[in-house]
Amino acid sequence: MSILYNCMRDVLHLLYPHHCVGCESDLLSEKQLLCAFCINELSHTEYAKFENNPVERIFLGRIHIKAAHSEFYFYKGKLIQRLIHQLKYSGNREIGFFLGELMGNTLLSSGRFSDIDAVIPLPMHKKKEFKRGYNQAKIVAEGVARAMQIPVIDDVVIRNRITETQTRKHRAERWENVEESFVVLHKEKIIGKHILLVDDVITTGATLEACAIAILSSPGTTLSIATLARADK
User: Fold this and answer.
1) What pTM was estimated for this model as a whole?
2) Quick check: 101 and 146 in contact, CB under 8 A?
């Protein structure tokens, strides 16, 4: 039976080859998304292990957070940019979930995020989400939540106005663009909880800060932040 199964599997693989989403090389297992070469190419930051890391310093003196982390360094033209681009603009939700799981495992192993109660993805305005078909931050958050065995809460915070793209804006302009653009609808769901706010990429942190301020308006709420990647300003 195993010989027959292996033959059928090999024939199906020839007819319907499975490729690495990073480099399009042939993969034997349909469960794989990245080949070993691409997995090794991803540049992990190791920030989760250390207090006062570069992501935490972004928010220093701006908002009070317990811990912050970005899983990868974001380099233009490199693999992580291509993967995030696939997630955001090409409908590849699988890669977002996969990278989210990687980040969730990192957060757990660090020991600094072990008391997280729930994950909140950075909200997208409903019109933008409808146009795209999904919120990429929620896909990442679902991967993180799976790894950490905690719930995703996506009905507490909403984005109440459409903002312009943050690309090519300076820090002050980015803040003006997103200030007061988030509203908490159900504070009772997060009162007294340690919340992990999740997004795909952080640059200046202005958007995450605006959302964090809304979340922290709930009494007794503690906040940590995690993103897939950290990009230079």
Assistant:
1) 0.86
2) yes
227 CB neighbour count, 10 Å cutoff: 26
β-pairing, 182-184 with 157-159? Answer: antiparallel
pLDDT tens string 152-207: 999 999 988 766 554 554 555 544 555 568 889 989 999 999 999 999 999 999 99
Q: How far apart are CA 47 and CA 23, in angstroms?
A: 27
Q: Is the same domain home to 18 and 67? A: no
The domain that holds 131 is classified in CATH as 3.40.50.2020
Same domain for 185 and 143: yes
Give whole-number Cα distances, 155 to 164, 168, 206, 212, in Å: 23, 30, 22, 15
Do 68 and 106 contact (CB within 8 A), yes or no? no
Q: Are residues 7 and 56 in the same domain?
A: no
* pLDDT tens track for 131-152: 999 999 999 999 999 999 999 9
Q: 31 with 181: CB under 8 angstroms?
A: no
In this structure, the answer to whether residues 59 and 166 fall within a common structural domain is yes
pLDDT tens digits along 192-217:
999 999 999 999 999 999 999 999 99
Domain span including residue 33 = 1-38
